[in-house]
Amino acid sequence: MSKSLLAVFGATGNQGNSTANFVLDDPELSQRYSVRAVSRNVENAKMQELKSKGAQLAQADLDDPASLPASLKDVEYLFFLTTTQYQGNSREIETRQAKAICEAALNASVKFIIFSSMSHPYKISNGKLKNVEHFDDKAEIEQYIRSLPVKSAFFAPGSFMQNFTSHLKPRPSRAGDGTFVMASIVNPDTKVPMIDITDTGKWVGAILAEPEKYNGKFFAAAESLMTLPEACEIISKVTGKTVTFRQLPDEVFKGFLPEVIREAMYEMWVLNRDYGYYGPDMAELVGWTKEQARGELTTLEQWLEREKYMIE
Q1: Residue range 34-71, pLDDT digits in tens
Q2: Rounded Cα–Cα distance for residues 236 and 209 (Å)
Q3: Ranges for the NmrA-like domain (predicted)?
Q4: What 3-state DSSP class applies to 112?
């Protein structure tokens, strides 16, 4: 039986690299699919590693539509994502990129598209949250793909555990007592969906294992729903440091955010606090999606230990 060709765009990024490696390493999927890893730079070390596992390499850029047809030749299955543009114009740029690759995919007779989507804050909040453009644009692209004459499924990752190395990283307490504080505007009982983004392939692999079953499905992908105080307890356990959660007033929190993404980041956390990251059905959506994963998911404690996580 000849293999179906899967093109993975963004193959050097967290999601694409996870997907490509998962398919190449999975005993069943590797017999059913050949992988074409697509990136702007095929000389990248991650691309060369995929090549050593048997992947084809292709150079393409979503901002260069002329580069797309060759990378999609003979492709039946496509995984792609658009990248948030933190300098601005994210909706315009991501929408243009998505439409370019979808048009090329249809011209190439691709049978199934898997897109990295997101929840829809504007819709979930009945129009109150207008600035979470980096979520809304992906939800809008999802709706566009659903309108096309092609089968599709959607992977929508929760809050990355990797954020604990950046804006969620505990900071030394101002008390100077050797303890650490994680600060946000969410309530102490706000549930946040947590995912190790390098687990992406475990869900995309599930879709590829049974594409007909998952046609049209939305994967609210997270290992767990966790409050930030619960995350602090786990970080304390792993690091041996005392980490506590502090809820900040909205305006104080906004003052800590970079101006260029201030409103977007602020409203993203308002979404978590006031509406739920995936909306009112979050627990049900995340529960179903977790059950579909192909393989064991990485817990926060496992991720912290794997990354040799430290705070100081």
Answers
A1: 999 999 999 999 999 999 999 999 999 999 999 999 99
A2: 38
A3: 3-304
A4: strand
